[in-house]
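Human: Can I borrow your eye for a moment on a structure tokenisation matter? Separate attempts, laid side by side, tell us more than any discussion would. Could you pick a protein and write out its sequence and tokenised fold? No explanation is needed for now; the record alone will do.

Assistant:
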Amino acid sequence: MTAKVQTTILTAFLASVVFAQESPTPVPSPINEESPELSISPAESVTPSPVPEQTFSASPARSVRISFVPPPLEGTISLGIYDAKGKLVRVLHQEADLNEFKIGADALVTQWDGKNDDGEDLPAGKYHARGYLVGLLKVEDVSQTAASPPENNSSANARVKLTPNPLANDKRAIVELAAGFDSDGSFLKTNDDLPLFTVNESPNLIRVSIMKNGDKSVDIWQTDGAGSHEFRISNVDQMMAFDCGEFELK
């Protein structure tokens, strides 16, 4: 602070003191008779409020960056998070287009918030991310020529050889496909419950099943209150597996 500014402030302060002494009217309020330090109201206090300080105790956000090079195949991406025991704990992306990912310098990028599909925080530890790029599969309704749906095989799987991913050393990856359904309809999934491909958008389903039909197609039966329908999914080999690697959630 310069000497000129200090002199100005001091002059203003002395003038206010003189004015207070010359005032003929006594000040009745005991607050004004106290020293300036004691008359400062809580709103004018320079002491920090303890409320904002409590915000520093909040837990930091848990966010994991996941990147991968997409397989060279046109289609959609399904990506899952698996725990150390290989159990699927989060469907991070389901039938997602490439433009739903952030484009990094040399890979596609996405984020995981450390939660499961129910929105619950998962414990710290090692996790794995992997998925599939699903190509142009064909769905055909063959209900008119369909036989009766197979009995007691709602948990059956169809083992399919996939198109090799040239970016990985999988040569000829094999996936076990299963059938699933929810309120939106039926879908093709892996045997560990990662949804891959929507088969039919039918509500009120009560049962689905799958059966292999040759090397490159599977049959899906779905049942609702009105009856059963059969769909044939062709080109199921037009999928490529990819792996995002292992990472640690803190």
About this structure: The first helix runs from residue 3 to 22. Residues 1-59 have pLDDT under 50 and may be disordered.
